[in-house]
Amino acid sequence: MRRVFKISLASAAAAAALSALLVPLAAQAQVRPGQQQPGGSERGENADGSQQNERARAPRIAPLRRSAAAGPCPYVKILYDAARYVELTGDRVAASNVGYTGEIEGLTSDCAYQSDEPITVHTRVLFNLGRGPQAQGDARTYRYWIAVTERNKAVLAKEYFDLPVDFDGASTASVSQDQVVVIPRADATTSGDNFEILVGFDVTPQMAEFNRTGSRFRVNAGTAAPTTNQ
Length: 230
Fold this sequence. Notes:
By secondary structure, the protein is mainly beta. It has one helix spanning about 205-210, and strands at about 5-10, 15-30, 75-80, 85-90, 100-110, 120-130, 140-150, 155-165, 170-185, 195-200.
């Protein structure tokens, strides 16, 4: 389903009204534990631009086809505070209290634009999801968002997407989703590096604070030896 929402921006880079489209693509792949996805990968970044380095090995995520662009692409990053999803029950942080979990494991992107055409950004996001001892059921619909911002400034637009997952009896699953972001430009002098695209889970304030402190569980918390870093 195509979703259209309008934004306005007045800045030195693009002093005109803009509109943005987030177009969900049909491409979605769910990988069972033990399977691998072909292709290379690109690790996401924190909101401050620093590289995330939480795993020893880079995630396996299929690369996107390279496109021609007249200038630099928008910055595409994973927001650190929303990079992980951890449901906790009870009054203490413990593996036995973990419900559903999730982690944005990989992010790759490419863009295309010529002359004064809109900037079309293709993104591919890899999610690793898990079920802890408090998870209820074999299926879960997670929610995540993609936001377009004027670089280091205000959010111009934000769209939410559902991420249905069927664990099929397993404790973990991997899902990749493709989305397209279209950013119209005021004129041909407005380049992609005036914009930033952020990706994150739809988390509660408590989840965001848990992530912000650097605490974490593995996506299969409660089914194997858990790891919590403070």
